[in-house]
Design goal:
This protein has 227 residues and is of the alpha/beta class. It has helices spanning 19-30, 44-54, 70-80, 95-104, 116-127, 135-147, 164-174, 179-186, 190-204, 209-218, and strands spanning 10-15, 35-41, 58-61, 85-90, 108-111, 132-133. A 6-stranded parallel beta sheet has the order 2-1-3-4-5-6, sandwiched between helices. Helix 4 links the parallel strand 4 and strand 5.
Length: 227
């Protein structure tokens, strides 16, 4: 793999709890253009410390490690040092490893049978804003998307003869908004909001905002916090 003219080598930290594997990756990358290995770590805690000290461009992250695993280390690095990208480099390609790592903020995911050129490509892909995924991982993501059933994204059907706008007002009441805030959110006058509230109260038999909140939750128009 030849280095593109004008592109500086990516500064990389290698993280793996197995010394032989870690040193092997460092040695391999040292033979290739396009990357500059600036540090290495044997667990997630050490990885977070090294990133804070060296501010690398990319961390090559193993997943299953003592003290702090790769998922938690990835989450902390991406939260505390957003300028550093993470590419997972692991033995495991199962869903229980893949999806938590991506959810934690990893932008790339390779298995350890990847060649040096593939690792370097993934490093520069994530630095360019793309995903650095092994072909097998890309296939698994596509399979998962095709297996996932589509979920309705529209609002629930208005109950008890309420109009769509009356239902919107009811939901905003349940979320704790004042009449003025509702008017601002819906870009209508406060008088119009009051009219909608009077109409929805009449249709549902509600007497006050507290009853309206209970009604909205009971009809499934609003989800309880944390769900």
């Amino acid at each position: 793999m030849s280095e593109e003219p004008g592109r500086r080598p990516a500064r990389v930290v290698v993280v793996d709890d197995q010394t032989v594997v870690r040193e092997g990756i460092v040695m391999l990358l040292g033979l290739l253009p396009g990357v500059d290995v600036v540090g290495a770590a044997g667990d997630g805690e050490e990885a977070v410390r090294i990133v804070a000290e060296l501010a690398p461009d990319v961390v090559l992250m193993d997943l299953r490690m003592p003290k702090c695993d790769g998922v938690e280390a990835t989450r902390r690095i991406r939260s505390e040092h957003p300028g550093t990208q993470v590419v997972v480099l692991t033995t495991y390609a199962d869903d229980e490893s893949l999806f938590p790592a991506l959810h934690a903020g990893a932008r790339g995911y390779l298995t350890k049978d990847a060649g040096g050129d593939e690792i370097v490509r993934a490093v520069h892909s994530v630095l360019s804003g793309d995903a650095g995924l092994a072909p097998s991982i890309q296939r698994r993501l596509l399979e998962w998307l095709s297996e996932s059933e589509p979920r309705p994204t529209g609002p629930p059907e208005p109950p008890d003869g309420l109009t769509t706008r009356e239902t919107e007002v009811l939901v905003l009441i349940a979320e704790g908004l004042t009449n003025h805030q509702i008017a601002s959110r819906l870009r209508v006058s406060t008088a119009t909001v009051k009219t909608h509230i009077n109409n929805l109260f009449a249709k549902t038999g509600l007497k006050d905002r507290a009853q309206a909140v209970r009604y909205a939750y009971g009809k499934g128009l609003v989800r309880p916090p944390g769900r």
